[in-house]
């Protein structure tokens, strides 16, 4: 028997004000679009902005459904839209802001497991890391240099 140790590293910014001007602008778009989320059941809204290597910014919000499994997270809404409409583009960065409707959450909220797996598919396909920035409604912003920090033992096409 042996023990496996997995170490992940994140950059932590005290607020969006510490981001570069370009990154701050894109995170502000994620914060803004979060208000358009369709979350009548959970009341938990998520906004996402993707930066593609062609300069396009793709926005997404979570979309709930009364049949709960039929809804879709903001990260997957945005990344699937990008994949469908810009199939040759690479996702360079993902910016996420998430918070309940009734309070401004200050704790950074990372992508859920299903979204991590979906992001992993694109990172592997494009053969370049995707930077992921995530936050609550305000406060600290966490940055991961790659999806592999959030899902180090990921399932990919090599297992098929």
Based on secondary structure, the structural category is alpha+beta
> What percent strand?
15-25%
Q: How would you describe the shape? A: globular
Q: Which sequence of strands runs across the widest sheet? A: 1-6-5-4-2-3
> How large is the count of helical segments?
3
| Biggest pleated-sheet summary | 6 strands, mixed
DSSP strand count: 6
Q: What is the CA-CA span between the terminal residues?
A: 26 Å
Radius of gyration (CA) equals 15 Å
Low-confidence stretches: none
Order of helices and strands: EHEEHEHEE
Averaged pLDDT: 96
Helix content: 25-40%
Brief description of this entry?
By secondary structure, the chain is of the alpha+beta class. The protein has three helices and six strands.
Write up what this structure looks like.
This protein is α+β, with helices and mostly antiparallel strands and 160 residues long. The protein has three helices and six strands, in the order E-H-E-E-H-E-H-E-E. Helix 2 (74-85) runs parallel beside helix 3. The longest helix has 14 residues, at 21-34. It is globular and about 50 Å long.
Question: What keywords describe this structure?
Answer:
6 strands; 6-stranded mixed β-sheet; alpha+beta; 160 residues
Strand and helix layout:
Blueprint: E1 11-13, H1 21-34, E2 44-52, E3 57-61, H2 74-85, E4 91-100, H3 113-126, E5 131-135, E6 141-144
Parallel strand pairs: 4-5
Antiparallel strand pairs: 1-6, 2-3, 2-4, 5-6
């Amino acid at each position: 028997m042996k023990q496996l140790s997995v170490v992940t590293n994140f950059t932590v910014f005290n607020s969006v004000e510490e981001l570069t001007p370009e990154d701050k602008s894109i995170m502000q778009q994620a914060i803004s679009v979060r208000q358009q989320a369709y979350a009548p059941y959970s009341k938990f809204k998520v906004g996402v902005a993707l930066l593609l290597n062609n300069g396009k910014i793709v926005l997404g919000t979570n979309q709930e459904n009364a049949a709960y499994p039929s809804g879709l997270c903001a990260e997957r809404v945005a990344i699937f839209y990008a994949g469908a409409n810009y199939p040759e583009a690479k996702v360079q960065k993902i910016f996420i802001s998430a918070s309940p409707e009734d309070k401004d959450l200050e704790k950074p909220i990372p992508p859920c497991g299903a979204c991590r797996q979906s992001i992993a598919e694109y990172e592997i396909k494009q053969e370049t890391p995707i930077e992921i920035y995530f936050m609550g409604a305000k406060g600290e912003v966490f940055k991961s240099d790659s999806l592999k920090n959030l899902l180090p033992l990921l399932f990919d096409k090599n297992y098929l």
